[in-house]
Amino acid sequence: MKSPLLSKVLLSAFSLSILLIINGCGKTDTTTPATEATILTNGVIANVTSTGAVSGGIVTNNGGADITAIGVCYSSSNQTPTTSDSKTSDTLKTDPAGTESFTSKLASLTAATTYYVRAYATNSAGTAYGSVVTFKTNNVSGINTVVSTLAGGIAGGFFDGTGPSALFANPQGVVADGQGNVYVADGFNNRIRKITPAGAVSTYAGDGNAGFSNGPAASAEFYAPQGIAIDAQGNLFVADLGNNVIRKISTAGVVSTFCGNGTRGYVNGADTVAEFNNPQGLCVDASGNVFVADRSNNLVRKITAAGVASNFAGSGAAYYFNGTGSDNAFNGPKGVAVDASGNIYVADAGNYCIRKITTGQTTSTLVGGPVQTTIVGSPSGISIDSKGNLYIADQTGRILELTTGNVLYTLAGTYNTTGYVDGTGAAAKFNGPQGLTIDNNGNIYVADYNNNIIRKVTGAIQ
User: What angle do CA 132, 134, 135 make, to 5 degrees?
Assistant: First the structure.
C-alpha cells in the first residue's frame, strides 16, 4: 500500500514538471536580430586625376553584426551604383574617437568622365549603401599648374634684392594684399618681408634680432614669427611664436602688441592678460576678429577687434573629436582660414585633416583624418578664395585645392616627395611647404620652408 506522503510528493513533482514545461514553452528569444549597417560616403573625392581618385566612407552603426565586406561602388552610367557595378574591397580602421572608416582607391577610370560613387557595407542582414557622390575625372592633359620661384635662394640667409638674389631663412607665413604684394613671416631672420609682384624684396618690419620690442617697424623686434594675416584696412597681424603674442603692424609702419602678455600658457581675457602657447596660423574676418591656431594649446582662439581673447574651439587635449564649443579636440593645429560667411577652416596637422568650425562653433571634419592620413597629408598653410575654394599646403610636398564641388585636387608636387624643382604639376617639388596664400588674380604663393624660397603657383582650378 502506497504511503499518502509518497503520493503527495509524486503529485507535487509531476505538477512542477508540467509547470516547467509550460514556462519553457512560453519563453521568447531575447536576441536582437541584425539589421543593415548605417554607412556614410566620404563627402570629398580626393586625388582626382584622369584615371583615378580616392573615396571612402564611415560606418556609424554596424547593425549589430560583423561587417563582412566594405568599400565603394562606382559607375559612369548607373547613377545609383550597387555592388554589381565596379567596386573596391577595403578594410575598416578605427580612429582615436572610436569611429570606423576606410579609404578607397578608384583606378582604371576614363578621362573627362562623370562618375557616381557610394559606399557600401555588407553584414548578415544585407548590404547597406551611403549617399551618392558625383565627380568628374580630369581631361587627358590633367591639371596644368605651373610652379615658379618668386623670390629667394635655396642656400638661405638674409638679403633684400630681387627674385633669386633675395635671401630668406626658413620662411613661415605668407599673405597677399589687394595690390598683389606678398608679405612673408621670415622665421629665422626674425623679420617681416615684403615682395612686390615683380619679385623685389624689402624688409617691412623687424631689425633681425630675436627679441621683443614695439615701435617703428625698422627697430621693432620679433622672435621666430610664424603666421601672418591682413585686415580690410591693410594692417598686418603676426603670430610671434617665440614671444607667444600676436603683434600688429599698422599701415603707418608701427608695431604693437595686439594680444598676449608674453607668458607661455593658456589664459583668456584682455590683451595684456591673455596667454598663448606657440601660436602659429592666423586669419582675420570681416569684423576684424583675429582667429589663432594656438598650436601647443591644441585650440583655435578668437581675439576681438578690441583685443580680447577667448576659446573658439577645442578642449585643449591633443586628440581627435568633433562637437560644439570646447566639446571637440585638435592635435597641433597649424593654419586657419575664414570664408565670406564667417566659417573657420583649420589645418589640423596632427590629425591629418581639414576641420570646419561654423559660426555656431560646431566642429566637423571636412576631409582626411587619423585613419585617412594620406588624403591631405600633414596640412599647414590654408587659404580660401572669394569663390570659396580652399587651398592647402601639405608639408609632405604638395599643394592641394578643395573646390566648392567637394573635389580635392593635387595642384602641384607629390605626396611624401621633397626637393626643389620648378615645373608643371606633379613634376614640381617642394620641401616642407608651410604658409600659403592666394591673391585676387588667383595666383598662389607658398612659403617653401626648407628651400628658403617663396614659390608661385599659377593655373589653379577656379
Answer: 150
Q: What is the mean pLDDT of the chain?
A: 93
54 forms beta bridges with 46, 105
Partnered with residue 93 across adjacent β-strands are 101
How far apart CA 114 and CA 61 sit, in angstroms, is: 30
3-class secondary structure, 389: coil
Q: Hey, what's the cell of 364?
A: 566637423
Residue 254 burial (CB count, 10 A)? 15
Strand order in the sheet with 236-240: 215-216, 254-259, 245-249, 236-240, 225-230
CB contact set of 214 (below 8 Å; sequence gap of 6+): 220, 247, 254, 255, 256, 257
Report the C-alpha gap between 237 and 227 in whole angstroms.
Answer: 8
- Number of C-beta neighbours around residue 328 at 10 A: 23
- List beta partners, residue 365: 355
What are residue 22's phi and psi, to 5 degrees? -60, -45
pLDDT for 17 equals 45
CB atoms near residue 72 (< 10 Å): 31
Report CA dihedral (9, 10, 16, 18) to the nearest 10 degrees: -160
Gap between the terminal Cα atoms of the chain = 106
List the one residue out of 401, 404, 406 whose CA is nearest residue 460. Answer: 401
Check if the beta carbon of residue 127 is closer than 8 Å to that of residue 84: no
How many separate helices (H) and strands (E) can be counted in the chain? 1, 36
Alpha carbons 359 and 289: distance in angstroms, whole number: 12
Q: How far is CA 173 from the centre of its chain?
A: 17
Buried b (16+ CB within 10 A) or exposed e, 391-406: bbbbbbbbbbbbbeeb
What is the maximum alpha-carbon separation in the chain? 126
State the residue for C-alpha cell 583655435.
Answer: 300
Instruction: For 282-336, write each residue's pLDDT tens digit.
Output: 999 999 999 999 999 999 999 999 999 999 999 999 999 999 999 999 999 999 9
Q: Are 312 and 297 in contact (CB under 8 A)?
A: no
Rounded Cα distance between 17 and 20, Å, is 5
